[in-house]
Amino acid sequence: MTLKVADTTKLGEIIEVVDAVAQMQRQRHERQPDAINYEIVVGYFRRVQRAKEEGKLLVSHTPMIPPEIFYAMDIVPLQLEFAATVAAQIVKGVEDCFSAAAAFGLAPEICSAQRLIAGQAIQGWLPRPDALVWSNQVCDNTAKGSNLLAEVYDCPRFFLDRSYQYSERGVQYFTQQLQELICFLEDLTGRKMDWDRFAEVMERSRRLQELHREIRELRKAVPSPWRNLWFIHMMGTEMYMAGTAEAIAHLEAIRDAARQKVEEGKGYVQEEKFRLLTIFVPPACAWALMGWMQGKHGAVCVAEPYFSYRDGENIDPGKPLESLARKSFYCPICGPMHGPAEEGILRDAVRDAIDYRAEGAVCFASIGCRQTDACIRMLKDSLQEKAGIPTLVLDNDTYDPTYVPEDQLKDKLEEFFELLEERK
Amino acid sequence: MPEEIIHAAGMVPIRLTGDSQEPALEEANAYMYINTCSFVRSCLDLVLRNQYHFLDGFVSAATCDCPRRLTDVWKHYDFTPFVHIVDVPRKMTKSAHDLYHNEVQGLKDRLEGFFDVEITDEALRQTIKVFNRTRELLKELYDLRKSDCPPITGAEVLEVLNAGFKMPREEFNGLLERLVGEASSGQRAVKGKFRLMINGSPLNNPEFVKTIEDLGGLVVVDELCTGVRHWWDLVDDSPEIDPVEALSRRYLNNFPCPRMFPPEERFNRALQLVKDYRVDGVVSEVVRYCVHCAHDQPLLRRRLEIQGVPVLELSIEYGASGTGQIMTRVQAFLEMLEGRARR
Amino acid sequence: MFVAGIDIGSRGSKAVIMEDSRMVSFSICETGPESSKTARFTIDEALNGTGLSLEDIGYVVATGYGRILVPFAKANVSEISCHARGANWYFPSVRTILDMGGQDCKAINCDENGRVTNFIMNDKCAGGTGRFLEVIADVLQVPLDEIGDLSLKSTQDITFSTVCAVFAKSEALALLRKGVSRSDILAGLHDAIAVRCLNLLKRVVINKDFTVTGGISKNIGMVEKIKNKVGLEPVLAPDPQIIGALGAALFAQEKAQAQSK
Which of B174-178, C72-76, C154-158 shows the lowest per-residue confidence on average (mean pLDDT)? Predict the structure, then answer.
């Protein structure tokens, strides 16, 4: 497989656009948390851009590989799905990536994120990494996708295997896997892990966990102090910035903004009409939908059972590896996506629906996401029986805007809002 | 999932399979989304249509997203009183073995507790002998397929394997012994223009293989979880090894499924089969949304082509018997092999 | 000796009569519900005016969707092999063939003798096939043979799903309701199909001597899009629809010769 010469202009384009957005947000008082979010994105991609010239190791990885390890070892991580998400929104020519993946022989049933990532690699949109790290933490697609990438990039690889169940044995196994990952990275950098620095990083992760929980509490307020888009921003921060000071600043800004609203007894929008539970994520190409729901229809997303810290233990910076291993079983995304549904996503969704006084649930069913979609019927039934709320299922493709256009999603949402109105 | 544990508990392990036709899956679609692979939806469809009413329990493994979510659905809607899922690591390292061993032990404990039975080491050793016998016999049967004109077709072998999934094992061994005896007698010789291997997603419908063979292909081996991957490796039955340990080792180290890491392990075994069985071409059937297979397919295809072995890729739904477009492709593939042979 | 090839496709049936690698006549008919009747009718059409009757034809090879249901054929060969052989008759230098049929699309590589060396077909979904274009023509209420020309009159780009025919259909309807012109919608759909074809072609070797066969290749809008996507000018046979039947006739000739030896 011959690789196209890396064309980093795409990366430059991303940085330029996001930077402009960040500056725009800076000028609006109520958008400070958003500004910080976009600045973080800019900084993230700048580090990727400069990794080579600064002599730093660049490691590409799939979602939920704990970034803390990379930050503790002064390695520059590049979360491939995140890069794909941003590129899908900003850069022209995403079709060429899908086309390149198809030409390589990837079936259309493979999730579009993985096809986009493969296509980006083949098209040379991103700098060639020094190593690849990936995992089964989210799904089969993330577990398999990087075999192809390792071949395309011809670089060292590490597969991080996480057990299915949250058990002591499972934690033990995953702790060992993380230890092996560290050894793999130590070999590449020629430097040993600095365990003191690792503990500092984990202390920041602990702080983030605290902030997540604080924010969760604030969001119970009626009317909701929440801007719908924030959860997507928070999810990003958690996935690629955990363990950093920037991430803490981001979450603190969100917390402060939300707290202020709660103290004033105000909602983020003037008239809150519907309180919704969000199941999974809106398509990357239609995040504007979140603002539209809130601005035009007063529909607030009050909780996202797939994307929140819940019970679990507290992170213990004194035991960085074990804490990190445990975190993988209860943290956003890979907690609820990987274990049994009954004690996981089904229980959490019902509890969130009740605790947050949701009036309906909106489920984004991405055609590429087999494991979340397989739960839809159980979720619908559970939410109806135990929380008494209806669920709207929106078929879509997370990365391919042509699969179901935004207008059709809007039509369906408006119908759903009418139904909720009638139920009142 | 080590069936031996169930057998040693005095129960009959039945392997869950779907329908041997491409059904509408209407019942299953009400419970699982269309991107659940049709193998799993076909199994679920049969369950919902009361075709598995005789089951007392369901043991599954967290092998991939679709079966693990089927287990969730199974439990949520309470299809059988007993439901258990076994975790299976994707690596074969020492710590992965420790985890898996613990899981197998967990299944044993749970069965004992739930059904109030005792699974003795003695029973396990006895069971291992019975199941190893099946493996030896299937190995003999497959060895016969290495000859120029094997005594049995690929479709017939799949029928045999299917029977094994659903029968009391001792009875199956008896029949299999007779079959291997008859097949070894040299009285039957099946001819075909080209020697083919089938690989890919779970396959149970012999009609699919028959379509290929009716067109002149001779299926001499497979690389399927319903074929070689099911029986390939023996369980260590030496008296000094603990039977649960022996079973865990065998099931984790077995001929790898596409879910395992590193993928080269499977690729190399597949390439070895191609060599040993003198395969002229490979038919890869990938059930839609079987993403483990789908991800590996372009990588395996390249490796096979480097060895000069052409690959026919068929994107199908589970249960397909091979009509219409499938037939056209297979025919064209065989015609292409013929053209290559002439050059 | 006279030989014949007959191609029973999902929409159209074609027959070609040959003598010593020379085409004597051909016919193109609609496929009826009964393949055996269609076959007879189609071959009679081809025989018509040649002074020959079916008994004069030494060997008949059938191909296409209904190839096993032709009572008077001595053998059947897949349409993939036939398209390669037929294309080779027209253009001996061609090594890459894109066959766009009613039910499916195929990318084929062949050697100097017209023998297939590699091929890829799309999955069974209808997107990107002749059937798909028929449905769309129906939705837009444009006669099928005019959609290609109309698509060339497009003034704005519209992106359609490159994956699913069902969604594309509802999307086309929605656009129509919004007042988007038929030519723009058609151009967008043709573009989507061309992308699918390109993805197929990329999985075989794309040679500069390249042809498009099958019914859709008569659609000039489609050929134009493919030319742009692939970046190569395809050579086109005067009657691209009959290439399958022509290939079948060439196989008939080969088989008849082998038989007489």
Answer: C154-158
